[in-house]
């Protein structure tokens, strides 16, 4: 068994103002994504130029926060949302959903693409490699905040979370997700997108990679207490929501490499 490295979930406290590591994880992920987007925008085959990156980052951040919160309240809020609708607005109490954040970002990309006249899927392909940074850092925030821990286990890397009322040795499933959804998926996507790919291909690989990683880790993660298992006595809501991503990702990759290749077009304002 490994000891849990107790870290104060509050990173910075300035009087009544408290900044949690989870919030810093989001900010760091957005900042890192912006920096990488700036670097990538220098390539002539990308759909976004340097002048558009700042606005794009704002749209993405808005989609993540609003979509993540709205998605969590409706997908995981359950009875609490019915009994206390105001809870949906109390974001400081925690609660974000990847699947809601994904829908929020896709909507933001649609609006941004329409405004800048950039094809939707080329825009999604551009930002997809940067998403695992935020995912990975968010899982570290979950670990520090002692939430979303794993099932009881006897593996050598199991640990007891001080906040766990049962004081059981559990999988540090947040770290499993950090490694798979964060580090591994980021490395795969950055490598894959380092040269021009057919439209839909990068998005498809992201959907497959995240869907498979999340589906796998859910076997080691304790399901939400107020939801439990939703099918066959073992299928969680996270798995139910992730399975369609895998199917969509396969379809996108198939379509990307089945259609005739189209020459990459320069971003708005770039010379050929």
The total number of structural domains is 1
Enumerate how many helices there are, as a single number.
9
Radius of gyration over alpha carbons?
20 Å
In this structure, how is the largest beta sheet organized?
Answer: 2 strands, antiparallel
How large is the share of residues in beta strands?
under 5%
What is the CA–CA distance across the termini? 58 Å
Which regions have little confidence, pLDDT < 50, spanning 5+ residues?
A: none
Series of H and E elements: EEHHHHHHEEHHH
Shape: globular
Provide the spatial order of strands within the biggest beta sheet.
Answer: 1-2
Strand elements, count: 4
Mean pLDDT across the residues is 88
Structural class: mainly alpha
Helix content: 55-70%
Give an overview in words:
The mean pLDDT is 88. The chain has helices at residues 21-40, 50-75, 79-83, 98-116, 120-127, 131-144, 173-192, 201-217, 237-258; strands spanning 10-14, 17-20, 159-160, 169-170. The termini are far apart. It has 272 residues and is mainly α. The protein has one domain. It is globular, with a radius of gyration of 20 Å.
Defining traits:
272 residues
Itemize the secondary structure elements and their pairings:
Blueprint: E1 10-14, E2 17-20, H1 21-40, H2 50-75, H3 79-83, H4 98-116, H5 120-127, H6 131-144, E3 159-160, E4 169-170, H7 173-192, H8 201-217, H9 237-258
Antiparallel strand pairs: 1-2, 3-4
Helix pairs in contact: 1-2, 1-6, 2-4, 6-7, 7-8, 8-9
